[in-house]
Write a structure and sequence with these properties.
Elements: E1 18-20, E2 25-26, E3 33-34, E4 37-39, E5 48-51, E6 57-59, E7 75-77, E8 84-86, H1 89-92, H2 105-113, H3 127-141, H4 150-171, H5 177-201, H6 221-236, H7 242-260, H8 272-299
Helix pairs in contact: 2-3, 3-4, 4-5, 5-6, 6-7, 6-8, 7-8
């Protein structure tokens, strides 16, 4: 009798993206501990792709893991009182500084569920769960005192939420997450501009922030804030008042040229940020030139 020498098909291995840390996280609001989820690295999980003009690092989906969005794991959310923060802030923000959030749990949950329904804060996070955590964080930092630099954190959270919603639109199309993304881009534009105004006036310094992001792969510093403020104004700023729009273009063009030394031979700020700033500078220059040409033609 001939034996069947064909090997049995092996069951596919479970591909893990994250793990539960042995170290618990303590919520500064309810003072209870909860599990901290962290992303695993290596094994082909993070295949870095292009860097967008918004300084967002794209990752190439793999056969084993599919679409990976590493920035999902930068925030945590308390499953009891539904506040969310960047992980480091759970240990840095004092109990008295989150007291205002005590009675808003149901309101936060309801507000988040209108956009990201059926989210779960206790299981390994999906993209939708991660998006919900980011939105909870956006709402949480609205009630955090200025000494913790909440405005720049809300700017980063809003921009990342826009990215996450675009990723959600790829995974589950047909739920209008591309439209939701535009709303978060608008919020990001507002908060980046407000960050610069607060820093200039001294109302809310940002110097103590460990990383300005905006993504997790590189810290582009204060220069990145100036660049993103200009870029978001160009892409998502108001278009009803053309004169005001052109005035902001002029201001942002000057800011970019001054910070990045455009038009000079200096190489003090090389790399992708300089290249993208130069491209944005050229866009502003062309828009202003075209507007002046229209004005001249109208006067003739």
């Amino acid at each position: 009798m001939l034996r069947n020498t064909k090997k049995k098909e092996e069951a596919p291995k479970k591909t893990k993206i994250s793990f539960w840390s042995k170290e618990k996280c303590k919520c500064p609001l309810c003072l209870r501990e909860f599990d901290k989820e962290e992303m695993l690295s290596g094994g082909g999980r993070m295949n870095a792709g292009d860097l967008t003009d918004e300084l967002h690092r794209l990752y190439i989906p793999s056969k084993n893991y599919g679409l990976i969005v590493p920035l999902l794991y930068s925030v945590g959310a308390c499953p009891r009182c539904h506040i969310a923060l960047f992980w480091s802030d759970f240990s840095e923000i004092a109990e008295k500084d989150v007291a205002e959030l005590l009675d808003g749990e149901e309101t936060r949950k309801a507000q988040v569920e209108t956009i990201f329904p059926h989210y779960d804060l206790k299981k390994e996070r999906s993209i939708l769960d991660g998006a919900a955590m980011y939105y909870l964080a956006l709402l949480t930092y609205d009630k955090i005192p200025p000494k913790y630099s909440p405005t720049i954190k809300r700017a980063i959270l809003s921009l990342r939420l826009a990215w996450i919603c675009n990723h959600l639109n790829e995974v589950i199309p047909g739920y209008n997450y591309d439209i939701v993304a535009k709303g978060f881009y608008q919020k990001a534009r507002f908060f980046y501009e407000q960050t610069l105004l607060n820093e200039t006036s001294g109302a809310e310094p940002v110097g103590g922030l460990a990383s300005f992001g905006p993504d997790i792969d590189k810290n582009y510093g204060y220069d990145g804030i100036i660049y993103l403020n200009a870029l978001l104004e160009y892409k998502y700023g108001q278009t009803e008042d053309i004169n005001l729009r052109l005035k902001k273009f002029e201001t942002n063009k000057y800011s970019i040229a001054r910070i990045f030394g455009l038009g000079k031979s200096s190489k003090a700020k090389p790399g992708p940020l300089l290249e993208k700033a130069r491209a944005l500078y050229d866009i502003f220059s062309k828009a202003l030139k075209d507007a002046n040409k229209v004005d001249v033609d109208d006067d003739e």
